[in-house]
Design brief:
20 strands; 725 residues; 26 helices; 7-stranded mixed sheet; 19% strand; elongated
Length: 725
């Protein structure tokens, strides 16, 4: 029997096997610990989710006039949106954008114009990563490494270098199709993750909506929805809309929050791409009109994908803002202004390009109409009337004799004159000063305060101002030695009680107060102040002033908002009243009731007695109109070259004088003459007639608190046609 050969295993091999055995043992031990000890922890980590709450915008509240006519509403729009996940690569978003570009049209002039230079550079980097990286040399990298920056700072520096070195030729190299992709991509990248971002909401066709709906499975995050856009029911084909400048504007979804207010809005729950009021009424009543966003809780997994959505709070469109404005009256006022300006805009009146009318309830402060028109040349060079209602509160003028009622009352209050004081109206001559006289240069002789108002005596006001300034006696060819500082202090204090030279408090931002406060070098300017030819006032201040006299001495805050209502169940219905805007008394005149009543009598005589300055031109005496006419010579400061001395033609009045319910101011600046030219009085007469005619035609249907249905502007047209028939 042969001897078997013995097999020897080297010691080194045994050692290797032993090490492998130990490693496997350690691995099994570690897996056991992971599974047994930490198993539940890792299972929970895998299942870990995150709640992300997002807000969905809702339509704004509507703006409606006092009689229920819709002024500003919301027009539904088809929209294509994209909701970006929390975790997604830019390359993936770009691929979706390319697919969308093949399904929708996103290459309008507006779309391409919205693409910024920075958008183009970022897009170029995304499409040419190697070329972009090549713009950074090894030397650049070495220099940056010497700064010992952390990774984020280093990457930012590299990125900035690349941006600087991208050439204009490179960012202009995109094809039309690539630009369309970029237009879509930039929309997809804006806004917050998990918040729907509008890709397109203008001129979205039914075909585009259908093809998107059919391809949602290959367009992750893309969807369709109904969006809204603000529209003015009174807007005409030429773009004109009455009261447009006062209604204000909202930002677009592209603009989002105004940069200067973004932090404030975000702090109270707005998103960056939310549309907000950016001017005037839309801005002033943002909190009312904005609505309550719908809140949705998105449950996301560890990868940031949404696995569940729950509505936490249903959305509710904004509350409706009911204005005190009567849009039928507003339109008629604007027609009257436009007709009168166009009638007189000739070569002989090169500067006359605007006029203003404010109509207010003197007892409540409700603005019934805010008419302002401006004559401008369009692109073709033809003149057209555009809305300038804001001019009633942001432009100011020397108002002339319309303020003389305040001068007389200031004379009473300071003791300079008393009711029925007689003074001699004759030309006044002061040392080293030009003659100062009334428009009747030979003078009116001995007259009292009522006759001075009726005939618009300048001299009576001059002599009153002298007494207020401490000079009791006029000395022909002698010096004017009044205390101009003390005189102006008293005048301005009393004028402010009427609303002249101070803010009226209207519920709009940006109100101006006019020129005032300076002390002139010449004491004669104090006399000019007394006849409305030194300080300047706004048309809105003028109507507040005359209203204060009309209602017996109460300065009422003017306001455009009348009511705030909850949204109705349907867009065509008004909801319950949340708040009624009550009259707010800013101050009461520090003057006796009998003084105010006497001045009222003087204003009645201006319009209703022969020789009154408004008697001949204000023909509708049946409405019992009281008021004061005015002309002021002032230096032109409008848009044309040169600064000639021109005439501002004004009127302030109210009716009926025995129970005032409407007050108006009319301002027509920059006429080359005040002789036989009274567009201010023609406008005033027609505005009063328009107001009372509308009231008569409506009968008892004017009470807006009974309105339940929102009327469309077309109803107004039908009513007007019926009236004509």
């Amino acid at each position: 029997m042969s001897k078997k050969k013995r097999v020897y295993i080297p010691i080194r091999m045994n050692i290797l096997f032993f090490i492998v055995f130990l490693l496997f043992s350690l691995l099994i031990f570690r897996l056991g610990i992971v599974q047994i000890v930490y198993g539940d922890t890792y299972k929970n980590e895998i299942k870990k989710t995150q709640d992300v709450i997002i807000s969905i915008p809702v339509p704004r509240g509507q703006i409606i006039d006092r009689n229920g006519y819709l002024i500003v509403g919301n027009q539904p729009l088809n929209a294509i949106t994209y909701t970006r996940p929390q975790s997604i690569e830019t390359e993936q978003i770009l691929e979706i954008a390319k697919k969308l570009a093949g399904m929708i049209n996103k290459k309008s002039e507006e779309d391409i114009k919205a693409i910024t230079e920075r958008d183009r550079k970022d897009f170029w980097i995304l499409k040419h990563p190697k070329e972009a990286q090549a713009k950074v040399s090894p030397l650049d990298e070495a220099m940056l490494k010497k700064k010992k920056l952390d990774k984020n700072e280093y990457d930012k520096e590299i990125y900035q270098l690349i941006l600087k070195r991208i050439t204009k030729k490179e960012i202009q190299s995109f094809t039309e199709k690539e630009l369309e992709v970029l237009a879509i991509y930039r929309e997809m990248m804006s806004g917050y993750p998990l918040s729907p971002q509008i890709i397109k909401n203008k001129n979205v066709t039914k075909e585009e909506m259908a093809i998107i709906a059919e391809n949602l499975d290959v367009l992750p995050g893309v969807n369709t929805m109904t969006d809204w856009d603000r529209y003015n029911t009174y807007k005409q084909e030429n773009g004109y809309a009455p009261l447009a400048s006062v209604l204000g504007k909202i930002t677009t979804s592209k603009e989002g929050l105004p940069r200067e207010l973004a932090n404030y809005y975000e702090a109270i729950g707005y998103s960056r791409n939310d549309r907000v009021g950016k001017s005037y009424l839309e801005y002033q009543y943002e909190e009312i009109l904005r609505g309550q966003k719908e809140k949705i809780n998105n449950v996301t997994n560890k990868q940031g994908n949404v696995i569940e959505s729950n509505v936490l709070r249903k959305g509710k469109r904004g509350n409706d803002l009911i204005l005190s404005v009567d849009m039928e009256l507003q339109q008629k006022v604007e027609e009257i202004i436009s007709r009168e300006i166009m009638k007189h805009k000739t070569a002989s009146q090169p500067y006359l390009d605007r006029a203003f009318v404010t109509v207010m309830n003197p007892n409540t402060g409700e603005i019934l109409a805010l008419g302002g028109k401006l004559l401008e040349a369009d692109k073709t060079g033809n003149n057209q009337m555009v809305d300038f209602a804001l001019g009633n509160m942001i432009t100011s003028y020397s108002m002339g004799s319309t303020v003389k009622a305040a001068t007389v009352l200031t004379g009473y209050q300071t003791g300079a004159i008393a009711p029925n004081t007689y003074l001699e109206d004759r030309p006044l001559y002061f040392k080293d000063t030009k003659k100062k006289s009334s428009w009747n240069t030979s003078g009116f002789g001995q007259i009292n305060d009522l006759y001075a108002l009726k005939r618009s005596s300048n001299v009576y006001m001059f002599l009153t101002a002298m007494k207020i300034g401490g000079q009791q006696t006029y000395i022909p060819n002698g010096p004017l030695y009044i205390d101009k500082v003390e005189a102006l202090k008293k005048f301005r204090h009393n004028f402010a009680q009427f609303g002249l030279g101070v803010k009226t408090g209207i519920d709009l931002p940006g109100e101006q107060i006019g020129y005032g406060g300076a002390i002139p070098d010449e004491p004669g300017k104090v006399l000019d102040f007394a006849i409305g030819q030194y300080d300047t006032y706004t048309p809105l201040q003028l109507v507040q002033y005359i209203s204060t006299i009309a209602n017996g001495g109460y300065r009422i805050q003017p306001h455009l908002a009348k009511e705030i209502r909850e949204p109705g169940e349907h867009m065509s219905e008004l909801g319950p009243i949340i708040q009624e805007i009550s009259p707010k008394i800013l101050n009461k005149l520090d003057m006796k009731t009998e003084w105010i009543e006497r001045v009222q009598q003087g204003l009645i005589s201006v319009v209703n007695e022969p020789l009154g300055t408004g008697y001949g031109m204000i023909k509708n005496k049946q409405f019992k109109i009281a008021g004061k006419t005015g002309t002021a010579q002032a230096q032109y400061d409008g848009p044309k070259a040169g600064h000639p001395m021109l005439w501002n033609l004004t009127f302030a009045g109210y009716a009926p004088y025995d129970n005032p319910e409407v007050a108006i101011s009319v301002v027509v600046p920059w006429s080359v003459t005040d002789k036989n030219f009274s567009p201010n009085l023609v406008i005033a007469d027609e505005v009063f007639k328009a107001y009372f005619d509308l009231k008569k035609n409506r009968g008892e249907m004017e009470n807006s608190t009974t309105i339940q249905t929102i009327k469309k502007q077309t109803d107004t047209t039908k009513n007007e046609e019926t009236t004509k028939e």
